[in-house]
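Re: the 270-residue chain
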Amino acid sequence: MNSSRLIRNASARLPILFCLDVSASMAVRRNKGAEPPITLLNDAVKQLLNQLRNELPMAEVAFLTFSERDVDYVPFQSLNDLLDLEFHAVADQNATSLAYAVEMSVQRIEDERAELDRLMVENYAPFLIVVTDGDEGDKRQEDVERVQNLLYSHCSSHSGEEQTLIVPFIIGVGEDVSLDKLRGYARGFKEGFFRLRNKAQIRAFRAIFKIVGDSIGSSIDLNADQDSFLERLGQVVRDEINREELSGKMHDMWDDFTFFEIIMDDESNE
């Protein structure tokens, strides 16, 4: 066994998989004064990884990037083993096969959890962080619904059953992304659904990823009973959202779709 595996076996693990859209449209500047989404995404992911290194040494991360046809995967590894990553948009692939990418991500998490169980390594509820600016590559509605139902099933297991919980954070980028489809993926954990608007700047990306990081950190202290786990974690997310909204810095940069209600901030930015 390699040294990384020996380190991982020493304590419980917290799997986190990033499922990231790198289609060509992610490199398009959507609004004057805003950076392209891929630039903002790189910055926010690095911020979250630094937060995890400082606060959650039990975390292990994996990355699945996707566009219309290309899918790349960086397997689960300790943060101590993780080299600097820079994500680049794939030229000439504007569509995104979101359903396929989410299904693959769920399978990778299932495989990792099975491997940890085989090695008798305790593991916390894993997280799936999806970021996308579109889903035009999903050709068949039945495939979309099947994968949405798959992810929902991982949010609706109950105590006493085999542990299958996966906590999803679904982040839409820009105002062209299908909100109905993203809602479908977030159906099992509605508090984990955000949409960043076209004028969103780096502080909005960082704010959402900070909420994600704080929620992941809080999750390890919550009761493992899946009947109440997501409800209690959802309250953590709502508290973090309220804190950001009260700061007054996110005006007109994101929408909060908690409980499927669109809540818009109509107050001035400053």
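The radius of gyration is 18 Å.
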